[in-house]
Amino acid sequence: MTIRTDWTLDEVHAIYNQPVLELVTQAAAIHAETQATGEVQVCTLLSVKTGGCPEDCAYCPQAARYHTGVQAHKLLPDAEVLASAQRAKDSGSTRFCMGAAWREIRDNRDFDRVLGMVEQVNGLGLEVCCTLGMLNEYQAERLKQAGLYAYNHNLDTSREKYDDIITTRTYDDRLNTLEHVRKAGISVCSGGIIGLGETDEDRIAMLHTLATLPAHPESVPVNALVPVAGTPLADQPRVSVWEMLRMIATARILMPHTMVRLSAGRQEMPVTEQALCFLAGANSIFSGEKLLTTPNPDFDADKQMFALLGLKPRKSFKDVPEGATVLGRTAAVEA
């Protein structure tokens, strides 16, 4: 299958606006052709530094300017992070993501500590991901050298809608960070959130931006807004499964080899709705009781779902040739 990064906005519009059953059928066929069906990447996300963020993202309970009841804390002790990573691995996760509520990385002792965390979690045989805000080329290189496998930096929404949601950093700031990550040879993880009050045209534009980057992101998280009291978007209605299906299926068609992650909002989705999302091309989830500060299905619930649907966890470092060494680990050996 030819992988394209030259999609036109009209083409994306036509794909997204198909009748939903035709869209899901088309996406399922592409998924079967390009991915191991029945295999789902299980990731765990830990907030290693919570709250006190100076940004004004309208959806985020960690912004210091909103009163959301989130208890701010500094960087967790290394031992606590490593213990969480080990529990995640023991529960079936193969990617461990660490998030810090920073606007941007600063070259200081906290960043040095995060680099140490990356090295230690990488030593467990897990794919290590971080989401730490904006970063420059030098910082991306340091993360790569420490053993970072992936870096998450979401676009959140379309360029046109963006200023309604965030004013403390620009859309181009986000794209520049993705470029620094890609240049360092770290896997790019970037997606967005639906339910922010955006239109279908905004959703289509965001997918178009992701699908026309110089290379498709290795992972595209599709998040449904989890409204949090105290944020400007607290009263937004719940996103429907049909909206999630359109996003996931369109992402799968545009970016066939990308991991499409069914991310925030799963706590409100029954297994039947999640099953439809897997059928439409989702093949990655976050498992564990929290996504940074918002609720998420726990490991036991996901194990029951996997058993019911006949799903199995994807192995870590699967895309690396067997026996090759990557970031100090031997690929395709860890479960």
Automatic annotation (TrEMBL):
Chain ranges of the Radical SAM core domain: 38-266
CDD domains documented for this protein: Radical_SAM (cd01335)
Swiss-Prot/TrEMBL cofactor(s): [4Fe-4S] cluster; [2Fe-2S] cluster
Chain sites annotated for binding [4Fe-4S] cluster: C53, C57, C60
Pathway the protein takes part in: Cofactor biosynthesis; biotin biosynthesis; biotin from 7,8-diaminononanoate: step 2/2
Record's cofactor remark: Binds 1 [4Fe-4S] cluster. The cluster is coordinated with 3 cysteines and an exchangeable S-adenosyl-L-methionine.
Its EC number(s): 2.8.1.6
SMART domains tied to this protein: BATS (SM00876), Elp3 (SM00729)
Reactions performed catalytically: (4R,5S)-dethiobiotin + (sulfur carrier)-SH + 2 reduced [2Fe-2S]-[ferredoxin] + 2 S-adenosyl-L-methionine = (sulfur carrier)-H + biotin + 2 5'-deoxyadenosine + 2 L-methionine + 2 oxidized [2Fe-2S]-[ferredoxin]
Gene Ontology molecular function, alphabetical: biotin synthase activity
Residues that bind [2Fe-2S] cluster: C97, C129, C189, R261
Keywords: 2Fe-2S, 4Fe-4S, Biotin biosynthesis, Iron, Iron-sulfur, Metal-binding, S-adenosyl-L-methionine, Transferase
Pfam families xrefs: BATS, Radical_SAM
NCBIfam families: bioB (TIGR00433)
Record text on subunit structure and interactions: Homodimer.
Family of the protein in this entry: Belongs to the radical SAM superfamily. Biotin synthase family.
UniProt-listed PANTHER family: BIOTIN SYNTHASE, BIOTIN SYNTHASE, MITOCHONDRIAL
Function description: Catalyzes the conversion of dethiobiotin (DTB) to biotin by the insertion of a sulfur atom into dethiobiotin via a radical-based mechanism.
Protein name: Biotin synthase
Annotated gene: bioB
